[in-house]
Amino acid sequence: MNNYISILSGIIFGVILTKSEVISWFRIQKMFLFEEPYMYLIIGTAVAVGAFSVLILKKIKMKSFTKEKIEFPGKDLNKGTVIGGIIFGIGWAITGACPGPIFAQIGAGESAAVATLVGAVAGVYIFNMIKSKLP
């Protein structure tokens, strides 16, 4: 049952991304060129909803579907996080997609997004190979 819920949630998320135009390369380009606030408002809304949701989850001590305690461990800011964030931002600016919208772009028929997906999978694979060598 959880798989069906996940698939349905993913489809709904993809429709929302498509209808809100956040999968549009032109919207992403305008964001990075500071030509319009649209994407910043979307991202700001997502951050606010996420923060409020985490606050609620912590307050009511909700458990996962598998009845496990949901924890939100902190994460230290380090050089690797900054470098990774810069690489992520460059990739986002070039391709017009972060991980979620890649699948929505493919679903919307943007065939160039397949190259983005291949690059993202290759990047994860390469990172997994070298992560033990990183400080």
Q: Can you characterise this structure?
A:
This protein is mainly alpha-helical. 69% of the residues lie in helices and 0% in strands. Helix 1 (2-19) crosses helix 5. The model has no long low-confidence stretch (mean pLDDT 89).
Give the low-confidence spans. Answer: none
Helicity range: 55-70%
SSE sequence, one letter per element: HHHHHH
- Which secondary-structure class do the elements indicate? mainly alpha
Q: Outline, from the CA principal axes?
A: globular
Total helices: the number is 6
What are the salient characteristics of this protein?
single chain, 135 residues, mainly alpha, 6 helices, 0% strand
Write the layout of secondary structure elements.
Elements: H1 2-19, H2 25-32, H3 38-60, H4 79-95, H5 99-107, H6 113-130
Concise synopsis of the structure shown:
This protein has 135 residues and is an all-alpha fold. It is 69% helix and 0% strand.
